[in-house]
Design a protein that fits this description.
TolA/TonB C-terminal domain, 6-stranded antiparallel sheet, alpha+beta, Fusion Protein Consisting Of Minor Coat Protein, Glycine Rich Linker, Tola, And A His Tag, Chain: A, Domain 2, 36% strand, 14 strands, 228 residues
Length: 228
């Protein structure tokens, strides 16, 4: 995986530097059909009307499988919906991300909106984590920027047992160039400067897919949690 990732990232930057050819980059997408995430999620049995939005993230493999899916339990009601999402993610197939037709493993952030009114239920998968400024600029249904998983050096430099959480925040341009990366403490211990630097270097050396608004690349704020 690492060797293929390094070859891809070297190729992407070489193409960008030459100014002759621009790599064709396709982000991971939920897709449609009976194997898509939205089709796989079953609305839980509930009494009365209900609306909930649950934030989640997963690693989308280059074959489209969703691995290490996890959802944030941000309110007591979220726990009613999270098992349905996790069960669907184990069975769903995504449209994988690719650079010039070659698949990449992606850190994919998304939200699932559940709505029940009377006997009618709907499940909507939103392909973004709901970063406020991005939603205000592009609406609820934009596709957020995505980061390719490669040589994750921060995993060797950061604590493997102690609990910690930091939020990475960066700007991703329409060409996928990342800048202005910064970290904010989110919980647990404060990671060492060496750990924090490794996270920043991991992000700055990653391949990024820009956010999409109506299919067009747009600038956006990228947010990703790092922790244990």
């Amino acid at each position: 995986m690492i060797n293929r990732y390094l070859a891809l990232i070297i190729g992407v930057f070489s193409l960008a530097a030459s100014g002759v050819v621009q790599a064709q980059k396709q982000p991971a997408r939920v897709g449609s059909g009976e194997d898509s995430l939205g089709s796989r999620i079953e609305f839980p049995e509930l009494k009365g009307d209900a609306t909930a939005i649950v934030r989640c993230a997963a690693q989308v493999e280059d074959g489209g499988d969703m691995e290490k899916n996890g959802c944030y339990n941000e309110s007591p009601s979220d726990q009613l919906f999270i098992p349905a999402i996790n069960d669907a993610a184990r069975k769903a197939r995504m449209q994988p991300a690719s650079v010039d037709g070659r698949g990449l493993e992606i850190y994919f952030q998304y939200r699932v909106k559940f709505e029940k009114k009377g006997d009618a239920t709907t499940v909507t998968v939103l392909e973004n984590p709901g970063v406020t400024e991005n939603v205000e600029a592009y609406g609820e249904d934009h596709v957020s920027a995505q980061r390719a998983i490669g040589e994750e050096r921060w995993q060797q430099e950061c604590p493997s047992r102690a609990q910690y959480l930091v939020w990475l925040r960066a700007h991703v341009a329409p060409d996928g160039i990342v800048s202005n990366a910064s970290l904010a403490h989110g919980g647990g211990i404060t990671p060492t400067p060496r750990c924090q630097q490794a996270i920043l270097e991991t992000v700055e050396n990653s391949i990024f897919f820009p956010a999409l608004d109506d299919g067009q690349p747009v600038p956006s704020t990228y947010v990703e949690p790092f922790g244990n």
